[in-house]
Amino acid sequence: MFERALNIFWILLGGAAAAYAWTLGLVGSSGPDSGLFPFISALIVMGAGVVLLLRSPGEAVAPDFPRGAALGRVLGVAAGLAFMAVSIPYLGFAVAGFITMIILLRAVEKSGWVFSIALAFISVVVVVWLFGRVLGMTLPRGPWGW
Amino acid sequence: MDAFGGLLTGFGVILTPENLYLCFLGSLIGTLVGVLPGVGPLAALALLLPITFTLTPVGGMVMLASIFYGAMYGGSTTSILLNIPGEAASVVTCLDGHQMAKQGRAGAALGIAAIGSFVAGTLGVIVMTFFAPAIAAVAIRFGPPENFAVMVLGVICTLYMIAGSLVKGVLMVALGFLTAAIGIDVVNGRERFTFGSIDLSAGIELLAVVIGLFGVTEVLNNVERVVKSTVVTDRIRGLWPTLADWRASWRPMLRGSGLGFFLGLVPGGGPVTASFMSYALEKRISAHPERFGNGAIEGVAGPESANNAAVAGSIIPVLSLGIPGNPVTALLLGALVIHGVQPGPLFITQRPDLFWGIVASMYVGNVFLLLLNLPLVGLWAQLLRIPYRVLFPVVLLLSVVGTYSANKNVFDLWVMLGFGLLGYVLHKLAYDLAPFVIALVLAPLLEQSLRQSLAMSPDGAMIFLQRPGTALMLTACAVLVALMFRRTKKS
Question: What is the C-alpha separation between B401 and B279, in angstroms, rounded?
Fold first, then answer.
């Protein structure tokens, strides 16, 4: 069921991309135009989606998606990364990274508070020192200047 | 410049304190990456690529290349002691390597894996020294149609070598091409698929895609299960193989070196395919195939030699043609471009310091790796005690830093997360992600070659059949496609 939905998505994606590429123009006065290459690619995506959809249901892969606690861990990692992407512009890398690591260690791995805080603190300090100071990279800073 | 002269230039470049240090550091990190399960060489290269922005192109590439072949050495340690491959090319080493460890012969297995890796790695670089300039000398005569045909052949070979569904592989390639089309058309400056977004107008950042697909996806796959495994922690003795071990291993080492080098050259081949093919070959020609899977040392010597030789083989098309055969070499190509270097037929003549510096560093790196892997094997074994729950948050933190540092743009973090989740779902549905990355890297050059070819041709697409080299390569593509259809029909 899930794979059939994905195959329909490929067909729609390929169709929409092909239609958009068509509007860019396939061939201009000086030869191939901007739309030609994406148009061919989009048609292949759409065609492959159709072939996959028309296969016998027995050939489809039954995805082994996690359930229960395992699903919680996967979603926890995704939520942690989403939190970091949202919070970095406001909190800076150091604070956002520290909070994200605690979320990951507490919510995903059920580690103890002391262990989580210690590991998050050490990891963030080492990363900021290595990348920010030693390698001179500009890491996003919070309103407090770090 | 002949090969010997070039090699001397290369050693002149590499034998400086800074470059030797970077080669050693890359070998050390590569071994660490190979030893630790859940951190593959591709994710490690993507995570550490930003570090090389502050280095010279030679230093940066020496470090990245040594991480790649270093991971091949380190991967066997985890396979032998833990029965969990440190990276994909060492999967097959688990079969006999761990059995040997359980029989009290972990030292011999680790020793022969390291020596086999050294022999094959060195043989591979020797052949590379003479072979890469020869290929570049031929490719220098190529025009846009030949470049287009070579890249199409590379993509078709990649599809031919993938293990899963052919249709899914084709879909991944086309999706990679479509993703690469997002941004500004370099030919006429027109925006494509940006929908007015400033973030999209710069295109999709390769680093964010690779870290998402291979770093985040790997973490998501690993955190969903709690892995409990038994490390063989008895004191590791007898690393130097016995006379009987040597007798049994030298032929598999040489066969693995040859096979691995050849499969490394072929797009879509590379270390993983090489190790599996070598194991199958050794088992097939063995007088006692029943020993395989029960601790046969040939089952360690062959595959471990093959995956190291494949590294040297797989670097040749990148440096001499500008065509990556697997995702790791695609990232190496991307790294060169970020450093302002365009690999291809002119690369060797235009940047001999860089090309020969990389080649020479591989000789030196193989010696470093032998020294790191034999005496320090006990230390690497201790590292296996680091629990994954400690490792993965650090990997994610590095993923964020690596992705952000490319453009200093938070949007790239969303791209990383999006491709991480997409990669996770596609992995569950048995999609191979390698063709996507190869297509994403090749697409700009492929499109440019296609458009230049059609623009210079009065007969449209017929230009691809009118030129002998192009016609030959496209015929080879057609044969491979026919073989693929036949194989799909049979299965």
Answer: 39
